[in-house]
Amino acid sequence: MTLKRQSNFVNVQATLPGFSLLEMVAVMTIVALIALVVAPRYSANGGPQALKSTAFEIAGLLRQSRIAAIRSGQSKSFSLSVSERRAWPAGADTSVIIPDEFTLRHEASSRCDRHAGATLIVFQPDGKSCGSVITLEMGALSAIISTNWLTGATRVDFTGFAESRPLL
Q1: Phi/psi of residue 57, each to 5°?
Q2: C-beta separation of 87 from 58 below 8 A
Q3: For the chain, what percentages of helix, strand and coil (3-state, to nearest 5) are there?
Q4: Virtual CA dihedral for 72, 73, 74, 77, nearest 10 degrees?
Q5: What span, in angstroms and rounded, lies between the C-alpha atoms of 164 and 2?
Q6: pLDDT at 44 over 50
Q7: Which of 29, 78, 55, 16 is nearest to 160 (CA)?
Q8: Which of 84, 114, 111, 107 is nearest to 97 (CA)?
Q9: Portion of the chain with pLDDT greater than 90, in percent
Q10: Is the pLDDT of residue 1 over 70?
Q11: CB within 10 Å: which end of the chain, N or C, has fewer?
């Protein structure tokens, strides 16, 4: 004799529609494949994000040069070569290569030095600099990296982006 136990619970499997684990894995695989194809188009190698990334890298190295001058008590320079499309702090192994897809313009004060095809943005031990404005453009988008001559402060402004407000 078999006893059957009655329950007030309804068989959930029969009444609730859902997805099996196999179906979920198949969908996740398809999404991952689409992401692999689409992601490189929006990576740091191109597009608006690359413009922002390059601007922030240059601004970061400018700030590093200023801090190094203040800490060491000696003038430090930051080099920008428009022809080589490269920016780097003097004496450092680090440099930023500016992609060819960006238009690069540089305006420097007459107090800035020129050496071997590059402009040297010089930071003094008191934090001052010679002053500089570096502009990166890609179509209607632009990043303006300005270094104040009096304070040496570096600022990055973006125009043409959805949020066109000053950052940093």
Answers
A1: -65, -45
A2: yes
A3: 30, 30, 40
A4: 70
A5: 75
A6: no
A7: 55
A8: 84
A9: 56
A10: no
A11: N
pLDDT above 90 (res 149): yes
Residue 59 is encoded by which pair of tokens?
A: 């601004």
Q: Which helix (H) or strand (E) holds 142?
A: strand 141-147
DSSP string across 38-100: HGGGGSTTSSHHHHHHHHHHHHHHHHHHHHHHHHHTS-EEEEEETTTTEEEETT-S--EEPPT
Smallest CA-to-CA distance from 138 within 106, 102, 93, 90 is with: 102
Per-residue pLDDT tens digits for 87-102 = 999 888 889 999 999 9
Handedness of CA 106, 107, 112, 115 (dihedral sign): positive
Average pLDDT in the 45-51 region? 80
Q: Distance between CA atoms of 152 and 91, rounded to whole angstroms?
A: 19
Question: Up-side HSE of residue 33: CA atoms within 13 Å toward CB?
Answer: 6
- For residue 40, how far is the Cα from the chain centroid? 15
Q: Are 158 and 52 in contact (CB under 8 A)?
A: yes
Beta bridge partners of 154: 147
